[in-house]
Structures are given as C-alpha cells and as structure tokens.
Amino acid sequence: MSKSITIQDHTFPSKKAAAEHFGVSEATLRSRLRRGLTKEKALGLVEHERKARTGNEIDIEGTLFSSVTEAANHYNINPRTVMSRMENGQSAEAALGIKPNKENTFRPHIKVELEGVAYDNLKLACEKYGLAYHTVNMRISRGWPIERAFGLTQ
Predict the structure, then answer these.
(1) What is the pLDDT of residues 69-114, one digit of tens each?
(2) Beta carbons of 118 and 112 less than 8 angstroms apart
(3) Is the pLDDT of residue 54 over 80?
(4) DSSP string, 101-146
(5) Which side of the chain, N or C, has fewer Cβ within a 10 Å radius?
(6) Which backbone phi and psi does 73 adopt, to 5 degrees?
C-alpha cells in the first residue's frame, strides 16, 4: 500500500504520483530520498549543492594526473578498462600498457596432460577439447584444477 506524501501543501497519494506531477522519475525520487535529500530537493523544487567528485591523483612516469580517467584518456585507453585492470591487481603503469604486467596470465608455455594425452601447451589442449583459450586460462587463473578447467571434473 502506498503512503501519501505532502509536497508544498499538496498531498499526493504516492511518491509515484508526486514524481509524475513534478516530472521526475519515481526511481530518481526514491534514490534521492535514500541519499538523504529533502522531498523538495529530491523533486528538483529546491537547488541542492552537489559535491564535486574528485579522483585520486596518480603519478605516471613523472606526470601527475588528477585521476585515473585523465591518465587513461592521455594514453588513449578506455578508463573503465584501466580501472578494471587496477581492481584486478595490476599497477597503474601495467593497466595503462606502459609497463608489462608482472602477473601476466598468458600461459602458452604450460604443458598439459589430459586423459593420458600430453599437449605441448595450453592452447593446443584447448583446441583439441573445443574450448576457448580465454575461458580455460581464466579458470586456471582463478585457481581451478586443470581437469576442472577443461570440464572433465566437477
């Protein structure tokens, strides 16, 4: 059951009705109220100060960037890609492609034995089993045993 809401001496049967009346989506209204804005600010009737979003400064090869996004744009790399790489443990320089990733997960040198057959490398084994190299490699990097990475065991 919807609760009524009073805005500027006018009572609406629900938040949805108030949002529609003031041209704001109900989801936006609810989100703003959860963040602690007053009803009037949440509906855009009163201006509210927005806190400036500031990124963390980052030093790349002696150049100070105001944020990871600024550095990514400078090196023509999607900022989301850089942030994702950094969240996965890469240094800023590795995420930007400036320095090699110390924890490179490319495993062409891994010799694999599956069901009694030896393969010179992971890629050949993937091709034999009809699996994408990326999928198997990711499973291994997450700690899966080789047989499970190839779907041979649970």
Answers:
(1) 999 998 888 999 888 888 877 788 888 888 766 555 555 567 888 9
(2) yes
(3) no
(4) -TT----TT--EEETTEEESSHHHHHHHHT--HHHHHHHHHTT--H
(5) N
(6) -65, -40
- Residue 29, SS3 per DSSP: helix
What letters, b where the CB count within 10 A reaches 16 and e where it falls short, cover 65-93? Answer: beebbbbbeeeeeeeeebeebbeeebebb
Q: What does each C-alpha distance from 90 to 7, 31, 87 come to in angstroms? A: 50, 33, 7
pTM of the predicted model, to two decimals?
0.36
d(CA 18, CA 39): 10
- Could you tell me if 103 and 89 are in contact, meaning their C-beta atoms sit under 8 angstroms apart? yes
Q: Which residue, 151, 153, 152, 126, is CA-closest to 137?
A: 126
Rounded Cα distance, 119 and 126, in Å: 10
Proportion of the chain in helix, strand, coil states, percent, rounded to 5: 40, 10, 50
Return the DSSP state at 66.
S
